[in-house]
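quick one
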Amino acid sequence: MDLTQYVNWFRHSTPYINAYRGKVFVILLPGEALKHDNFWNIAHDITLLNSLGVKLVLVYGARPQINDALEAKGLSTNMQEMITAQSRNTVRITDAASLDVIKHVIGKLRIDIEATFSMGLINSPMHGADITLASGNFVMAKPFGIQNGIDYGLMGEVRKVETDAIRKQLDNGNIVLLPSLGYSPTGEVFNLTVEDVASNTAIALKADKLLIYGNEAGILDQDGERISKLSAEEALALIKQKIEQNGIDEELRNLEVSVKACSATVKRSQVISYEDDGALLIELFTRDGIGTLITQELYEQLRPATIKDVGGILELIEPLEEEGVLVHRSRELLEAEIEQFVVIEREGMIIACGALYPQDSQSGEVACMATHPEYRNHNRGQMILEQIEKNARKLSLSRLFVLTTKSPHWFVERGFVASSVDELPEKKKSLYNYQRNSKIFVKLLG
Ligand SMILES: CC(C)(COP(=O)(O)OP(=O)(O)OC[C@H]1O[C@@H](n2cnc3c(N)ncnc32)[C@H](O)[C@@H]1OP(=O)(O)O)[C@@H](O)C(=O)NCCC(=O)NCCS
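structure w/ coenzyme A:
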């Protein structure tokens, strides 16, 4: 193994680990994923996420297993297209006899999943991790009823997700396991689609992510190439196209679930393959991922910093402080000065920052400009500086200055000119650190 590569990978994953701690992820595992040889690895990766402090809800489906069981009993699988305002799916018209089989299949799967996680993942790096799965009557359902003259029988739809009860389990460090079944207040059980349970649970919990395992490496374009990211709007256009081309298939379902979740309260939805070993980890812990990301909000956002960003900014600037490129700022100082900062946030991570410190009625100092090394040279520094200049104009400042040891040319190319200590505002002059020997540059704001 190349140790340098290993160390680099580990270092680069630290910001993600910090960004994901305490976050809620809902994972949709279709029945096909549970059947696949790679499920052992998937269970391992889920365990690892849990041990990093991510709060996880697993929603599992059972379509192929139920089909097999019904066929073995000589019962019809009875699939029918069901089209609602938000989605189209192929669902099972469910009578009492088939529901009985479904309950058996889903119950057995639950026990098998619990057994897999109980083994402490023997012979794997997660051996010894104590993982507890919790399941129960967390999803309430109502009958789907009759549509276009078809009576869907005991096929239902989600009525309510018991978020308080789920959160209690998550807060205790448990992974919550939800089947594609729901209960009614009158004591009935309804067969649900896994997509319905996963999307409604993610929305009700305001999950940070909905992760969907599919049989492809994400959502594919017309040439069969993976699309790495889509806005909800782009995803909607793609849905229309796919309906015309292929009708209802797994990819379409995954797109619709993602759009539904992202159009409501879920920040991001990601589709990954259940066939690829480690897909979950690569998608979550590398810059470009391996699946398809669907997001409602802007993927990257330039905005004023808030107190919640202090940790992220520290992570970004600490390596530069160690190199002596930036002056050291303690957490306390950053907290006190956070309002002077603007940041670029990407996927919950702070990848660029900069600050404006007004010095007197005319001058302001540009400071602490930094872009994460992996995200440099894409105009982010420029965008931060432009925002700082805008903020300075709002404060009626006419002059910006910057002290830099490493990036003089960067500022010169953006309209700053060389200056000297004498030109600094009085307050700053007395604080000038001759040892750092920073170069001073000034820009007049027109
Ligand atoms: C300076 C810094 C913030 C720029 O971030 P960025 O997001 O890459 O900025 P942009 O994408 O807007 O600008 C990149 C351009 O500037 C150039 N550039 C980057 N650093 C430079 C430097 N030190 N001197 C001259 N040019 C530089 C790049 O080559 C690139 O040029 P190109 O567009 O012709 O390829 C970033 O390099 C950084 O974090 N540096 C370390 C911290 C620092 O020195 N801060 C300044 C003191 S406050």
